[in-house]
What does this fold into?
Amino acid sequence: MSENGEGPSMGSAPEIRIERLNTERTRKVSGSDTVYHAYFKLSGHPQPEWGRIFELEWKGLNLAQEAGVEGSFLVVHCQLEEVASTHLPALKKVVAATNEAYKRFAQKEATALWDREDRWRQERKDVNALAASLGFD
It folds into this structure.
């Protein structure tokens, strides 16, 4: 609920950003001479739903490379020379789209929670009114 008690607030869904390529984790895929697991450090540890949305958005680009979320990293399976020209721009686009979709999801969840809490408060009010009207000693 918002600070003024008038409905849900969206203060708890920080935007995720790509901060850098993690050079410690980035390495060749076992058995390949050209394909790497490229690890991009994120600004935070996204919620599981953010990761699910990211994967759907990435698949929507119809790129051949696999990508996903591992903890606070995005991982793309690609050739290193494609990172700067192809994959980083695509990742930035997908992260922005994911942030927007996640905001909508989180707002919907906050509204649903507020509605459930509001129904519960009304139910308690009704029960308390009935109890007060019963006239017990």
